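I have been asked to look over a protein record a colleague put together. This is what I was given:
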Amino acid sequence: MTKVYYLMHSSFLVELDDRYLLFDYFDRAVCSDLVEYRGSLPQLSPEKTLYVFASHSHKDHWWLDNLKLAEGRENIQFILSKDIRLGKNYLIRNGYELSIKEKITFVAPLKKYHVDDMTIETLRSTDAGVAFVINVNGLNIYHAGDLNWWNAEGRGELYGEVYGREYKRALKPLLNRHFDIGFVVLDSRMGEDGYFLGMEYFVKNIECDYIFPMHMWGDYKWIERFKGRPGMANLKDRIIDIDQENMIFEIED
């Protein structure tokens, strides 16, 4: 049994039999002027190894205090985009021992890494940092970070076309592959003409059993709106309904 915890925004916790994968966890207070998130980590078993992923340095995807998760826990590894700067002086100034860096793997776009028994591939984001493709315990998991077909209202048609080409190019390594779980951007800030573009392309072109919308800024009504779009009738059952923080989903192996 695999458990997926939706914490908030783009932050998810995947619980497997022997480990946790924590994605893009951040300080919910930094978004309080936009949305009052209530998401938080559940109690974590000390017996299971914790892998902490951060796709990039934006404050709604990374929190320096994540390093405190290593306090009293030997079985922890951090997989962080290399744009997250953790220099010697910065760590010391913020009260961290330099030994924490022994637990960190910094990753760059379009590379493959092996962390313990996991294979981790990175894609180049259309914004900052990376997206993650992870093979673990026979599962294939995708977390987009900020990789999306961005098309903000008012930016014009050319803006959307440029990001569309970049997005399709970035997702090429996923074509003709099967994914068990995908975490994909559905950002309402793009407006009626743009919010669905990245998600729709992913759903129609990538084989993925369970697709979790994310980066919604607490505006969950857009999930149902997306599922009602033309061409979604035979695909919408793959898209998970989320309507609040701290939801738990159980996925049969």
